[in-house]
Amino acid sequence: MTFEERLAAAHQELASKGVWHANYNPPLFRLLRRLGCPVKPPHYQGWLTNVLGFGISIGLLWGLLMWFFSWQPMGIDPLFSLRQTALFAGLFGIFMASWLWLRRKQLVLTRWEQLAEHVGTRSTKDQA
Questions:
Q1: Distance in Å from the first CA to the final CA of the chain
Q2: Does residue 14 sit within a domain?
Q3: How many domains does the chain have?
Q4: Calpha distance 60→92 (Å, rounded)
Q5: Which of 12, 13, 11 is nearest to 29 (CA)?
Q6: Does residue 32 lie within any of the structural domains?
Q7: Does 113 map to a domain?
Q8: Does 80 have pLDDT greater than 50?
Q9: Does the pLDDT of residue 122 top 70, yes or no?
Q10: pLDDT score of 48
């Protein structure tokens, strides 16, 4: 089973459970896939992977925006801004990873490794 087939099965499963397209296929993930990185949807990532992925990405964006539009003009110490960015990014990453873990449990999603077989057998049962 190829990555693309599993990805299509994951998107089909998430869409059938009522998850919004932007939630299971966010712009950053689409960009990474276009660049050749095989990135699973966030609902199928591990908790720590989601903490790091969401934390680092939002930390870079938020930290740079805050530095150029708020902290630098106010003369804030760079170490303070780095600490604040790390704190915000860490908390945001933990929150998002926990939320995705909870949603994965609520939606009773199939494990990534078993996804294609499960979706394939379900569609065969539906046709019978």
A1: 24
A2: yes
A3: 1
A4: 12
A5: 11
A6: yes
A7: yes
A8: yes
A9: no
A10: 97
Q: What DSSP string describes the chain?
A: --HHHHHHHHHHHHHHTT--HHHHS-HHHHHHHHTT-----GGGS-HHHHHHHHHHHHHHHHHHHHIIIIIHHHT--HHHHHHHHHHHHHHHHHHHHHHHHHHHHHHTPPPGGGHHHHHHHHHHHHH-
The pLDDT value recorded for residue 120 is 53
Residues 11, 41: Cα–Cα separation, whole Å: 8
Question: Residue 15 carries which side chain, given as an amino acid letter?
Answer: A
Query: Range of 101's domain?
Result: 3-122
Q: Cα–Cα–Cα angle for 30, 35, 37, nearest 5°?
A: 80
- The overall pTM is greater than 0.90: no
Query: Is position 67 within any domain?
Result: yes
pLDDT at 1: 79
Given a cut of 50, whether residue 4 has pLDDT beyond it is yes
Q: What angle do CA 29, 31, 36 make, to 5 degrees?
A: 95
Show the tokens assigned to 86.
Answer: 């790390």
Q: Please give the pLDDT value at position 10.
A: 94
